[in-house]
Give the backbone structure.
Amino acid sequence: MLSDHGEEFGEHGGTGHGRTLYREVVHVPFFIHRPGLREAVRIDRPVSTVSLLPTLAELLGEEPRAHWECPSLVPLLRWDDADPSPIVSELLRNPEDLRAEVRSVIHAEHHLHRSRFRNSPAAVEELFNLTTDPGETVDLHRDRRDRAAELSALLDDFATHAPAGDWEFVEIEVDAETREHLESLGYLEP
């Protein structure tokens, strides 16, 4: 079982999803069940949903592909305590949206959240310690500038090396019932 995103219920001033990448939006259920598995294993550190494909492939005895972005989680299922990889999230928005960029990176116990708005050249960054502040209420950016700079550099590197998307937005007509359903799910604004 896997979810593609969580929901915000006012934790950071909004509701739904598609506006921020705080923990309540990026921390999602990720369960794997395999017949014959003898005991449950819980991985208590953040992992990326991009690891799903390589993990399932390894469990099925398949070889990893060179273009896969993340490693398999099978070593963690065997209690191998490898160093955690940074987990980058990116929110792609409609061109009319006020936000030009929303990205975040989780590495070890820290989560850096970055928003850049179209009307401002400077990005707004916040740094949180997920171990001591899982609700992301205390911004440590000013006190931990060194750590914030490290994580910010990871986001810059990601943006530089991420494949460029060739996005084309098209308008489509939807009937009233479909529109109402999409609004109720948070995909359209009323």
Remarks:
- The beta strands are 8-9, 15-16, 87-91, 99-107, 110-117, 123-129.
- The chain has a mean pLDDT of 80.
